Amino acid sequence: MIPPRLIFKKGTLKILDQRLLPDRIAYVTARGAAQTAANITNMALRGAPLIGCAAAYGFALEMRRLKPVSGEALARAARKTAALLKAARPTAVALFYAADRMLNKALALSAANPDKFAPAALDKILNTIDREAGLLASEDEAACLAMGKYGAALLPKSCVIMTHCNAGALATMGIGTAVGVITTAHKLGKVKHAYSCETRPYLQGARLTIWELMREGVPSELITDNMAAHIIKTAGVNAIVVGADRIAANGDTANKIGTYGLAILARYHKIPFYVAVPTPTVDLAARGGEDIVIEERSTREVTHIKNVCIAPKGVKVRHPAFDVTPANLITAIITERGVIAPVTRASVKKHLSL
Ligand code: MRU
Fold first, then answer.
1. Between vectors from CA 196 to CA 272 and to CA 168, what angle results, nearest 5°?
2. Domains of the chain by range and CATH?
3. Ligand 1 contacts CB of residue 18 (under 6 A)
4. Could you identify the atom of ligand 1 that is nearest to the CA of residue 204?
5. Which positions are annotated as active-site residues?
């Protein structure tokens, strides 16, 4: 079992500190939106769906902390809180989806209760906001199970599968997206072997994904990112499955840096390349991949591993944390509603209207 990622109790959010994994299981506590946002920015928690769920809880914490006295005060606090949370990281649209959904809930409550709140009314409003955050988390959990089922059905028997970054339980409130597909297929006896790419520079694959696969008893090996082509060619890899942070309306997909390269390898080796995501990952406001903001993270994450510098002092460094895989390299997108294939603007639109 993977330890709980978020534990929300009125007034506090305990966050599994993923920076310490796999060495230590420890939690940090957030008591408001600013602390929640800081823990998203500093990567104590990461992974698109989990970022969204944490933001929803952070929003609920903040309303409880501020105790707005009227509908107007609630609307003001809600707008400010949503903006603060959205600034935590730029690429995962789950963060924006969650912040907007909580904001809309709060604005509806504010419109329905325009006057000064009586203590019992405030209590009811805060409980409703807490429940909305809980709903978002349980929707994510259910979506993971459905994606696992749809994704596992796509895989052949004795599948040798590769994944990148961490799109597992640690990135969600459930069994994960891409890793959920692998563990579900494993339970059905379909997985011969799984490979986790280490995912330089932040090592989500080495620290998190392989740890999850080992805990779930999936026969698996860790490889460095530059081994991927060789392993695909020589180890009989017959599918690649990854998660995503944002999918544009035409199916172009932003995911952890290195994903694009794997999609090109999959095309060259004629193996399917799957992306597993909950539907809120599709951002219809982004027409294509060029509209997706790619986060540039600290260069220290490239030059240092566990606080040890591995590059010359004064070196110039780039650190784009995500890349965009063009839709035409993606065999199918797996969501909680089913499978999008082929991946085109029209098929994405049709799927979202299901
Ligand atoms: O920088 P991270 O660790 O938040 O990046 C995570 C990823 O790129 C995941 O593949 C993506 O969020 C999907 S998680 C189900």
1. 90
2. 6-144 (1.20.120.420), 149-352 (3.40.50.10470)
3. no
4. 3
5. 245
